Automatic annotation (TrEMBL):
<dbReference type="Pfam" id="PF07690">
    <property type="entry name" value="MFS_1"/>
</dbReference>
<feature type="transmembrane region" description="Helical">
    <location>
        <begin position="51"/>
        <end position="73"/>
    </location>
</feature>
<feature type="transmembrane region" description="Helical">
    <location>
        <begin position="288"/>
        <end position="306"/>
    </location>
</feature>
<keyword id="KW-0812">Transmembrane</keyword>
<feature type="transmembrane region" description="Helical">
    <location>
        <begin position="376"/>
        <end position="394"/>
    </location>
</feature>
<keyword id="KW-1133">Transmembrane helix</keyword>
<feature type="transmembrane region" description="Helical">
    <location>
        <begin position="223"/>
        <end position="256"/>
    </location>
</feature>
<dbReference type="InterPro" id="IPR036259">
    <property type="entry name" value="MFS_trans_sf"/>
</dbReference>
<dbReference type="InterPro" id="IPR020846">
    <property type="entry name" value="MFS_dom"/>
</dbReference>
<feature type="transmembrane region" description="Helical">
    <location>
        <begin position="352"/>
        <end position="370"/>
    </location>
</feature>
<dbReference type="InterPro" id="IPR011701">
    <property type="entry name" value="MFS"/>
</dbReference>
<feature type="domain" description="Major facilitator superfamily (MFS) profile">
    <location>
        <begin position="222"/>
        <end position="402"/>
    </location>
</feature>
<keyword id="KW-0472">Membrane</keyword>
<feature type="transmembrane region" description="Helical">
    <location>
        <begin position="312"/>
        <end position="332"/>
    </location>
</feature>
<feature type="transmembrane region" description="Helical">
    <location>
        <begin position="172"/>
        <end position="193"/>
    </location>
</feature>
<feature type="transmembrane region" description="Helical">
    <location>
        <begin position="262"/>
        <end position="281"/>
    </location>
</feature>
<feature type="transmembrane region" description="Helical">
    <location>
        <begin position="80"/>
        <end position="96"/>
    </location>
</feature>
């Protein structure tokens, strides 16, 4: 019995290592799209108002890809699904590169939209790490895999710098070609993944062998709170982060100063992952999630104190740390709300709701900033945080008693 437990833990740790490396490669693509999508959009778009459409389409593809990705992984297993996702990532980078070479805005947008489908698989790596883990290792597994995002936060921007002028006749084509190369490198890494076989039961069945129906799951207050915490943490981060560089430049700061603020923000998003798992083990998932939401609210408060460069940078750093605690904590809460038979449906719906909301936030941030200003963007943080923080704090005594 002891040997079996030790073997299972060794397998879980192996999977965590594989997924962390895959995360560092897969999550390095979005910074390329986010940092260059609008610039390339300005170059190729027939209408200046559509310049940020490629970035928004990435978020839309990510949202639309979550349910199909969950169904494919449920039917064929995680490893097969992840290999398919990486193949889509390779193809999406090539399509985006072709769009730049041909100066075809629609083709470029198609490439960034397809990249979102690859992102849907990458986002589920955190769940795959937790699937085979048990006890304290389950919470730490999610946090450890997210450390791969810290490497990605360095890899993505550096690739932009190294490759943006690789083809003088087609500026930035080299950067999107490197995005394709990252996905290609992820393929051999993902072949090392060893996960339990997919369930053969039909996805929509509600009998006991296949767990509760989707309707029953979504009516669970515990799961609803966990999903809501993930939605608020991620959507607010995306909403404020999208608007921040525009607001900084509008306040007279340089593009370089705005970019540096975003870099510190991204580092703050992933650097705490070294301790987030231990914090959840010691203090509980709900408390860490609540702390994350409080930090997101604090970022809004700092932003409202003034328009100096320090206000923007400190706000963005707090926003990044708050996202880390809130989103990882919420993810760990979700893993406690389903059985192995139910996880495909729960994880797919969780990510669909989160990234669907993130896509809406991405589309609306620029418009709202232009219409109403940076101040309103940050005032909207507080009611959204309160909507989840109040019931989360109300639940803490019940968590302590279990």
């Amino acid at each position: 019995m002891r040997e079996t437990i030790m073997a299972a833990e060794a397998l879980a740790r192996r999977n965590i290592l594989v997924l962390t490396l895959a995360q560092s490669l897969g999550a390095a693509g979005p910074p390329i799209i986010i940092s260059l999508g609008g610039i390339v959009g300005q170059m190729l778009s027939p209408d200046a108002a559509l310049a940020t459409l490629p970035v928004s389409l990435y978020s839309l593809g990510l949202a639309m890809g979550t349910i199909p990705a969950a169904l494919i992984m449920r039917r064929f297993g995680r490893r097969s699904g992840y290999l398919l996702g990486a193949a889509i990532g390779v193809f999406s980078g090539l399509v985006a590169t072709l769009g730049i070479v041909l100066a075809a805005f629609v083709v470029f947008c198609l490439g960034t939209f397809m990249a979102g489908f690859y992102g849907a698989y990458v986002q589920s790596y955190r769940f795959a790490a937790a699937d085979a883990a048990t006890g304290a290792l389950k919470a730490k597994a999610i946090s450890w895999v997210m450390i791969g995002g810290l490497a990605a936060a360095v890899i993505g921007p550096q690739l932009v710098i190294w490759t943006r002028d690789a083809f003088p006749a087609a500026p930035f084509a080299g950067s999107f070609l490197s995005q394709s190369a990252l996905a290609l490198l992820a393929l051999p890494v993902l072949t090392l993944l060893r996960t339990p076989p997919a369930s053969s039961a039909p996805a929509g069945a509600a009998h006991a062998a296949n767990g509760r129906s989707l309707r029953e799951l979504l009516l669970s207050p515990r799961l609803m709170l966990a999903i809501a915490a993930g939605i608020v943490s991620y959507a607010l981060m995306s909403f404020v982060m999208t608007a921040a560089p525009i607001a900084m430049v509008g306040c007279g700061f340089t593009v370089g100063e705005a970019a540096l603020g975003i870099q510190w923000h991204v580092l703050a998003m992933f650097a705490p992952s070294f301790v987030t798992g231990n914090l959840m083990t010691r203090f509980g998932k709900e408390r860490v999630t609540a702390l994350g939401l409080l930090l997101i609210a604090a970022s809004g408060a700092v932003a409202l104190m003034g328009l100096e460069l320090a206000h923007f940078w400190i706000s963005l750093i707090l926003l990044g740390v708050g996202w880390n605690f809130g989103f990882i904590g919420a993810t760990a809460m979700v893993t406690d709300c389903h059985t192995p038979e139910e996880r495909g449906r729960v994880q797919g719906v969780n990510d669909f709701l989160i990234f669907g909301t993130v896509a809406a936030a991405s589309f609306s941030a620029g418009t709202l900033l232009t219409a109403s200003g940076w101040e309103l963007i940050n005032w909207l943080v507080f009611p959204a945080v309160a909507l989840v923080l109040v019931p989360l704090l109300w639940r803490l005594p019940a968590v302590r008693a279990t």
